[in-house]
Structure formats: structure tokens, C-alpha cells
Amino acid sequence: EDQVTQSPEALRLQEGESSSLNCSYTVSGLRGLFWYRQDPGKGPEFLFTLYSAGEEKEKERLKATLTKKESFLHITAPKPEDSATYLCAVQPPHLLTQGGSEKLVFGKGTKLTVNP
Amino acid sequence: DTGVSQDPRHKITKRGQNVTFRCDPISEHNRLYWYRQTLGQGPEFLTYFQNEAQLEKSRLLSDRFSAERPKGSFSTLEIQRTEQGDSAMYLCASSHPGDPYEQYFGPGTRLTVT
To answer: Which end of chain B is less enclosed by CB atoms within 10 A, N or C?
Structure first.
């Protein structure tokens, strides 16, 4: 069974205190790894897609990296508005017997709180 | 706003009743997905459409659940004979044929079964 594990479950930072969130996965033949941000009571907001080990992407204070077994979301000098739950998801390889799988498999998320 | 829209945003129903949710994807997005999310969990995949064809269904989608996308535009998700365990956020997402892996989510429909 494909699994995505995110750590820590919750993280409290002071404004300006940089840190990293971790997403480890057991999927082999990964087709893509995705990071989303989710605010309470809202749908996930797309942040990044990573396709191959060594790839990095940046957006404002966020930087996502990918290795063969895990991904990191680095948050540099966070602000209170960065407080949210950050979700990691993977897209498993095509299942030949079913002609393909387009689902995303999500982790449980890391709840980030940034205090002013 | 040209994002994914869902209606209603909240639904409270009594156990045993039927409910139907609607999702309107982003214009020109030919793929549409339904997910379910419970408190403290990530979204779980339910089903997926490419245009009007339903191409994949999760084992989570019991016989009481049915989804349609009759003209390849909006989609509906119906739950028959609701149970308390159906209480969750139902999320819809869509993706563009040029970037099929990037799924954009709507705000969700919060279902509470009493």
C-alpha cells in the first residue's frame, strides 16, 4: 500500500524562525510529488509539483526539495500569515491492469503555527 | 473568481436521507476528481472523470455513492441513505489537459449527518 508520512504533525514557530517540514513516501515509480497549503474550512491550495530527485522549486518564503525517498518544505523567515496545514501528496505510477491511476495519495499534513 | 466552485458549502442532513453535491470545474479543465476529507486527515480519493467518462473509482465509494458528469462539465456526487460515518468535507478538484498532474481544489462541501 502506498504511504505518505508527514512530520512533525504540528509545528510552532516564532515569526522569522526558519524550519523544514518533512514528507516521506514509500511509492516506487513516483510520477509526481505535490505540496498543498490548506487553511481551516477551505480546500487545499496548490503550491508545488516535483517530478525527479534533486529538483527544487521556490515560491516566496517556501522552497520544496525532493530526494528518492522524501521531500522537504523549507520555510524561510515565516510570517503569521504562513500559518496553515501543509499537505504532501504523491501520484503513484500507472497501474497497468487498470489502465492508469490519476489519484493523489495524501499525508495527514503538518499544522504550522507562526506566532508574531 | 474562475476557480473550482462547489455547492452547497454546508449541508446538514438526517441519517437515512439522500444528499447531492455539485462541482463546477475550472473552465477548459477536462479532468475532475472527488475526494473526501475527515478531521485531521488528508483528502482521500473517491473517483475521477476525464470529460464525461468515469475512469476510476476508489473502494471507498460504496454502492450508496454515485457520481456523474453528464456533459463533461459540472459533476454531481450523490450519497443515498446517509450514515453518520459519511460526515466529512467533500472536495472536488480539476486539472487541465496540458498539466494533468496538477489538481486544483474547490472550497469543499461540509456534510454533517445527524
So the answer is: N
Taking an 8 Å cut-off on Cβ atoms, the answer to whether A49 and B40 are in contact is: no
* Model pLDDT for residues B51-101, shown as the tens digit of each residue: 999 988 888 888 999 999 998 899 999 999 999 999 999 999 999 888 877
Rg (CA), chain B: 13
Q: CB-based contact (8 Å) between A39 and chain B?
A: no
Dihedral angle computed from the Cα positions of residues B70, B71, B74 and B78, in that order, rounded to the nearest 10 degrees: 0
| Predicted confidence (pLDDT) at residue B2 exceeds the cutoff of 90 | no
Mean pLDDT of B8-16: 97
b vs e for A29-61, b when ≥16 Cβ sit within 10 Å of the residue's Cβ? ebebbbbbbbeeeebbebbbbbeeeeeeeeeee
Q: Is B57 on the interface with A (CB under 8 A)?
A: no
The answer to whether the CB of B32 falls within 8 A of the CB of B92 is: yes
- Partner residue facing B56 (CB), from A45, A101, A106: A101
Residues of B in contact with A109 (CB under 8 A): 42
Alpha-carbon gap, residue B92 to B89, rounded angstroms: 10
Question: Does the distance separating the beta carbons of B43 and A104 come in below 8 Å?
Answer: yes
Q: Which residues of A touch B93 (CB under 8 A)?
A: 43
Q: Does A4 touch chain B (CB under 8 A)?
A: yes
